[in-house]
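pipeline stage [seq->struct] | target=Ketoreductase domain-containing protein | organism=Phyllotreta striolata | residues=252
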Amino acid sequence: MVDNNRPNTDLNFQGKTVLVTGASQGIGREIVKQLVKCKATVIAVARNKELLASLKQEVPAVQTIPIDLTNWDTASCMLGNVGDIDMLVNNAGLAVLGPLTEVKEEDYDRVFAINIKAMINITRLVVKNLLKRKVPGSIVNVSSQASLVGLVNHSVYCASKGAVDGFTRACALEYGPKNIRVNAVNPTVIMTDMGKLGWSDPAVSGPMLQKIPLRRFGQVHEVVDAVMFLLSDRASMITGHCLPVDGGYVSS
């Protein structure tokens, strides 16, 4: 298996400013670290001030902005004044799981507020800036295999990630003529700290693993690598694509 701590030395984002949401932990945090290793200027956005502070301590070059992205006006004001953005990673997300019959309105509101409403708003801001400057751009949305298949007790989450994929394709179509590429990655269970907590019990993980041809869950670096590739000029002819990073789950 590839070393999770190795830099993507074949990629160079020097001169590019990248905004990463949900950047304080898990996949988002590792994306930030790899982008900095690849010489990007990175703006890391998340709600948790303490985790952002620890990220800043670990990666002093990164600019951190603590903000609740579900507040449309506040996010628009704060992120509309950070300067020029060349690339965007929409990684912020939330899952509230349970049977459909037990879903509450506030569950729906919380999940859709961060998984799709905030994504639309931040993407809107970045695209407006790119169009104003008449420069190309690259956007990667972190979706999920839950957008492609049904998962038990994931009805609201599946619906929100389905919206992410639809939004990705529509943006790619609308702004492809302006050389703004928009793609998504769709991971299976990834072994972040939260993933390890939720899927360590063999009774829980066993049935899911049996549906993954590679018979394992994903590692954080495997999602980060896909994001880095789609952001880069190596993917210059790829837009409107939703890339499963799932060990073959959706093919079964």
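stage status: PASS
auto-comment: Helices lie at 26-37, 49-58, 72-79, 105-133, 155-175, 193-199, 202-209, 220-231. The radius of gyration is 17 Å.
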